[in-house]
Every structure is written in structure tokens, then in C-alpha cells.
User: Which sequence fits this backbone?
């Protein structure tokens, strides 16, 4: 239904310095797998097998990760260590990968617009890899959103409730309930102060976007922090009644922050070692 997924991955990851000085933040591992791989697995599970990445300077490790490493393969061939590469081999086999660079950091909206040549004129998924979303025992968040796209044929954003004090870290939506877990968005605001926030429903880093978003981003002036904000372009679609917000099933970890990253690591390690705490 939706075959393409875009990964904006040009950000500097300043909250993780010095770790991210020469390594992309998307390559930070949660236990033994980099964040970007979790994201691509989620996209493939949702049927999105054409992966587009918007990278930047110092991000070559991303391309290398989704490529064969012949020396390594040769070294471990026939040993038990091969098993550790099964997951990434499957992604390399089942997905295509294309890359483009964002030359200047002008915001998430600008990053999405930079990815336009990789997407074309079709609806597509977006994953912000530092939001790790897990739904053990069920399908991933993007796959859940594709089901909704089938029904509504409009842009969809994943949301979750956040403490009122945290609204300035997120895009915040306002809208009318359609059913328990779905809201038709009437307005959205990028990172409002708590006193200006229309709700405490925050956008997390999973989107399905209809391709008219590109034209809307083109005519979006710089907003919060002087950057071109995806939220502002989506607000235009929302005005036309074309954005649904979805309270997804599963758990999201903010791996863009050290605390969220450690929490995710503990959670994934606990699951793997059978610790139910
Ligand atoms: C971006 C978006 C914001 C969204 C957030 C989710 O912000 O601009 O609307 O709520 O991702 O993680 P960033 O965290 O990149 O500043």
C-alpha cells in the first residue's frame, strides 16, 4: 500500500556529544542493534521496502551499515557469529536504499523536502529513528498507521499524551475524536509553551504523509527556532481536514535524550534476558 519510507538523519545529535562527534546518532546501539536498524525493520514490517535517507556530513556509517561488509563476512563465515548478521542481511536483501544529503540544517520540514526526489508523488512513511517504538506481541507503529491510511487516505501522525510541562519539546495537536484512538486534527502547533498548548497530545516520530506535503513545505516560512517545521506544513493539511492523529499501541522511548536512551537499553536488555521488571 505504501512502499516508501523516509528517514531524516542529518541532525548532529548534540545531546550525545562526545559520542556523536564522528558517529551518527542513528548508529547508537540499543543493546547490540543501532537505532536506525530498529526503524528500518519497523518500516519493512509495514511493507515499506524502499528506504530513503536524508543524511549529512559525517553520516557515511549509515550507508555502510546497509551494505555488505565483505571482509567481515569472510572472517565470520561458517562460525556461530554469522547469526548476529541475519537481521541486517535480511534488510539488505529485502529493501532498496537511497540517500541524499541535507546541506544545511534548516529543520525537519526542510529535511523532508530534501528527500522529495527519493519519494516522488506517492504517500510515504517517515521515521525519526531516535524515537524508538516497540510493540512486543503486536505489529509495529508504522504497520498500525498503514491500516489507518487504508481507511482515511490522508496524512497520519502518531501521538501520545505527555506531561503538560513537556509540550515545548513536541508538536502538539488539537482536534475532534473520531473514535477512541483517532482524532481528526484541526490545528497543530510546534513546541508550544505549556500555557499556549492546545492539549497534551504530542506528535512522536512516526508519520504517513500524502505527497502534497512537499508543496506545502515549500510555501512554509521558518517557524519555531527559525527552522522550516513539518508541523507548520501539516497544519495546512489539518485546516483542510486531512490529518488524523493516532494514539498508537506500544511504547515509545525518546532515545534522543540520554535518560530515554538508557531506559530503552534497560528495557530491551531486560526483555532479551527474560527479566519482566
Ligand atoms: C520533531 C518534530 C516535533 C515532534 C518530535 C517527535 O522535533 O518537530 O513536532 O513532536 O520530532 O520526536 P525534534 O525532536 O526533532 O526537535
Assistant:
Amino acid at each position: 500500500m505504501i512502499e516508501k519510507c523516509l528517514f531524516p538523519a542529518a541532525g548532529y545529535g548534540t545531546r550525545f556529544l562526545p559520542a556523536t562527534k564522528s558517529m551518527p546518532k542513528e548508529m547508537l546501539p540499543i543493546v547490540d542493534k543501532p537505532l536506525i536498524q530498529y526503524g528500518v525493520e519497523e518500516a519493512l514490517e509495514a511493507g515499506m521496502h524502499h528506504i530513503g535517507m536524508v543524511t549529512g556530513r559525517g553520516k557515511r556509517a549509515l550507508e555502510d551499515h546497509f551494505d555488505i561488509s565483505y571482509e567481515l563476512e569472510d572472517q565470520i563465515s561458517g562460525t556461530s557469529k554469522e547469526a548476529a548478521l541475519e537481521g541486517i542481511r535480511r534488510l539488505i536483501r529485502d529493501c532498496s536504499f537511497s540517500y541524499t544529503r541535507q546541506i544545511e540544517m534548516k529543520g525537519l520540514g526542510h529535511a523532508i523536502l530534501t528527500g522529495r526526489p527519493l519519494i516522488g508523488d506517492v504517500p510515504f512513511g517517515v521515521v525519526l529513528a531516535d524515537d524508538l517504538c516497540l510493540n512486543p506481541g503486536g505489529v509495529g507503529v508504522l504497520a498500525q498507521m498503514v491500516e489507518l491510511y487504508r481507511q482515511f487516505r490522508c496524512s497520519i501522525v502518531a501521538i501520545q499524551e505527555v506531561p503538560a510541562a513537556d509540550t515545548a519539546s513536541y508538536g502538539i495537536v488539537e482536534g475532534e475524536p473520531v473514535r477512541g484512538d483517532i482524532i481528526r486534527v484541526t490545528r497543530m502547533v510546534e513546541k508550544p509553551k505549556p500555557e499556549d498548548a492546545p492539549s497534551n497530545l504530542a506528535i512522536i516520530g512516526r508519520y504517513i504523509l500524502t505527497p502534497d506535503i512537499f508543496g506545502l513545505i515549500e510555501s512554509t516560512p521558518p517557524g519555531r527556532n527559525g527552522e522550516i517545521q513539518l508541523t507548520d506544513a501539516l497544519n495546512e493539511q489539518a485546516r483542510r481536514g486531512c490529518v488524523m492523529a493516532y494514539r498508537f499501541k506500544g511504547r515509545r522511548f525518546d532515545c534522543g535524550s540520554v535518560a530515554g536512551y538508557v531506559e530503552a537499553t534497560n528495557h530491551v536488555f531486560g526483555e532479551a534476558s527474560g527479566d519482566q521488571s
Remarks:
- The two ends are 38 Å apart (CA to CA).
- The chain has a mean pLDDT of 95.
- The first helix runs from residue 35 to 45.
- Residues 108, 128, 131, 170-171, 190, 202-205, 229-231, 256 surround 1-O-phosphono-alpha-D-glucopyranose (CB under 6 Å).
